[in-house]
Amino acid sequence: MKKYKLSFVTASVYALLLLMIGSWASIIIGEKASLSLLFTEKNLFYASKFFKGLLGINEESPAYLNAENWKNALDLTIETLVMSVMATGFATIAALLTVVPAARNVADGSLTLAKKWHGWLSFGVVRGGYIFSRAVPELVWAMIIIFIFKPGILPGAIALALHNFGILGKLFAEVIEDLDSRPVRNLSSSGAGRFQLFLYGVLPAALPRFLTYILYRWEVIMRTTIVVGFVGAGGLGQQFKLSMSFFHYTDITLLLFFYLLLVFAADYISEKARIFIK
Amino acid sequence: MDKRWLNFELHKRKILTLILLLAFMLSLFFVEWHSNLIHSGGFITAKQIAAAFFTPDLSGDILLLALESSWTTLSYAAAGMSLVIIIAFFFGIFASGILVSEGKIKRYIRPLFRGQLGIMRAIHELVWAWLFVASIGLSSFAAIFALAIPYGGILGRIFADMLEDIPREPIKALEAAGASKIQALWYGYLPMVRASITSYAMYRFECAIRSSAIMSFVGIGGLGYQIQLSLDDLHYDEVWTFVFFLIALVLIIDLWSNQLRKRLVQ
């Protein structure tokens, strides 16, 4: 047994090394990418031009000196913030509604003392849904959703929620699996219904960790809002893409500034909130 | 007065839940809810997309293309991760401040590297990619660097946290026996964090595959690029084929890392 364990880990390490070497080989040989081509004079010229553009050197009216632009960026920042909160809300609601059958100890009946014939069936269906929803990146969800909804913050929020629904669902289900089952079994043997079990047995015990995960995902969603904006889902990302296309590089500086502000604010708030509930 | 009101712990939890709920409700007011939200043909499109889910395009050409782009996606993720590990290793060690003794230098070095890691991971990999493409042009290296910077930031920070959180006693024993800082790192710190950092790195590898798939958005080939092309051609059945390949790729890495984690933690 010991030998097998060692060999699997060693084999994995070798396989990973091989995969990395193979990848570099296929990128450098197959696609003829070369690092020396990257640092030609032409590239240096473009790079310095781009960074000068970002800083607004030789520009008549850099965007960050214009009050109008600041107001616009501020509006977009609020829009982005709203989008992230909405996405987190949608994902949380959907995950909470589906999480009970997705827990292993509910499916085999050890938590609720009631084994149902459809226990493992609904477990499989919900877990499969989670895997599907989190395996597809937010941006791909956004590309698909934008075909159905008009551009704005709603499709962005839905796309973000679709991806995070699977992640939150999996994390929530693991929390329920790790719960102390005695209080819930006690409730169940005194005749509580399914809804009552969830409300009075599971939720009070699992709520702190649910909240931690929600806040953690909110941080990640905040970082990703800009990306779903690229395909037209509103917020800072949409403006970022437009400014890139129009070569308004000073705009980019302003937008990146607000983006970083949002990300750091989200990190700070969620950290403080987590300490608050401890 | 009822003593239950003084039950503080429950109280705080409820306050936070209420605040979060309120924030969510408020956010809903920002959207003007009317039927204009959906394209005029939106419902029909939604139906077509849903129908195509059950009839993915499984013709030979598409499968071959999907396999090829899966390899592209995987290879970018793996190449990026190899840089990520190098970045995370060095930055993590400096950000944890275990190589320098207590004192003035540590007070500067730790926050400096931690701040650096913070900035690296604050910006999403696609934004990095865009900045790289705008400055050095379309290149495979742009994608790899763009992936490596934020992932290095995350992994480096986790590595630094792990190094700081390990029990001090074995290290003190090593130092008492006359080990230098480097020896303490090599024989004390690293063996203790090996299992947890490996399993976390595997998890990041899974995320890197998703990220490298969407890197295509700035013009680098791979599954995301094909998904986008098929979507632009309105070939929804092809879209789902590529999406299924992406899911399979992510699942394989997920299973692998689960097996590896199980054996490492034992």
Q: What is the distance, rounded to the nearest whole angstrom, between the alpha carbons of the first and last residues of chain A?
A: 41 Å
Question: Rg of chain A to the nearest angstrom?
Answer: 25 Å
Taken in chain order, the helices and strands of chain A follow as: HHHHHHHHHHHH
Name of the CATH homologous superfamily of the domain at 59-160 and 193-265 in chain B? MetI-like
Q: Please give the count of helices of chain A.
A: 12
- Shape, per Cα inertia axes of chain A: globular
Portion in strands of chain B: under 5%
The N- to C-terminal Cα distance of chain B equals 52 Å
Characterize the main sheet of chain B: none
Write down how many β-strands of chain A occur, each being a DSSP E stretch of 2 or more residues. 0
Name given to the CATH architecture of the largest domain in chain A? Orthogonal Bundle
Transmembrane segments (chain B): 15-33, 74-100, 126-149, 208-227, 239-257
Membrane topology (chain B): Multi-pass membrane protein
InterPro entries (chain B): MetI-like (IPR000515), MetI-like_sf (IPR035906)
Protein name (chain B): ABC transmembrane type-1 domain-containing protein
Fold blueprint:
The complex is a heterodimer of chains A (278) and B (266).
Chain A: H1 2-30, H2 35-38, H3 41-55, H4 67-102, H5 104-107, H6 119-135, H7 138-145, H8 153-177, H9 181-189, H10 194-229, H11 236-245, H12 249-277
Chain B: H1 8-28, H2 42-54, H3 60-96, H4 104-122, H5 125-136, H6 140-165, H7 169-176, H8 181-214, H9 223-232, H10 236-265
Helix pairs in contact in B: 2-10, 3-4, 3-6, 3-8, 3-10, 4-6, 5-6, 6-8, 7-8, 8-10, 9-10
